[in-house]
Amino acid sequence: MTVMLFRQDAYLRDGTGVVQSLTQEGGIVLDQSLFYPTGGGQPGDSGWIRWDGHDLPIATTVKGEGDAIVLVPAEASALPPKGAHVTQTLDWDRRHKHMRVHTALHLLSVVVPFAVTGGQISATHGRLDFNMPDAPENRDDIEHALNDYVAMDARVSEGFMSNAELDANPHLVKTMAVKPPKSSGDVRLIRIGEDEDWIDLQPCGGTHVARTGEIGTLRLGKMEKKGRLNRRIYLHLDS
How many CB atoms lie within 10 A of CB 14? Predict the structure, then answer.
């Protein structure tokens, strides 16, 4: 099992690790990872690892067997041996933009209150697919509502709920196809707002900013029809 340092603190940019194994494809499994693995529509982190004078760029990060997290090198190069002590460094600018977009998409799921059928995140924009028959006509109202939530600078925090509690509150699960992330038998929840006065509360395994003000100004993008009852809405960071 790889310890998920990004869950303990999404703002960690540097850390250490010990090589546990190398995959047949040339991936690197550490005992603990700053790097978030691709999942839930969020791309895997990139960055660098260093050991004994070597500097290896990491192109992306993926999930491996069991609970392992695999760092994928950006180029064919010498790999650290098993047991090597390495320093991990995130491409922080890219990760932070993922955090901003991911949190913004949570707000979009509040402003457009339909079941979510899919989503994707990049460093400049994100999109959600909604189970809705018609595209919304109030584009300006949606954009204003999103930026009002940003301006509130609401707190974003993590909590946990048992599977039984989640089963008793099915309205918290907005995604139709993705199972909620679990940790030690519990479901991880991301809350925007205060405990008793929250804006959004839903299961999520990704990384997020600490306050909505950190997202920055949002711009609503195009809306596409992706099936009889599916509408795709794009959301962009202004900078």
Answer: 12
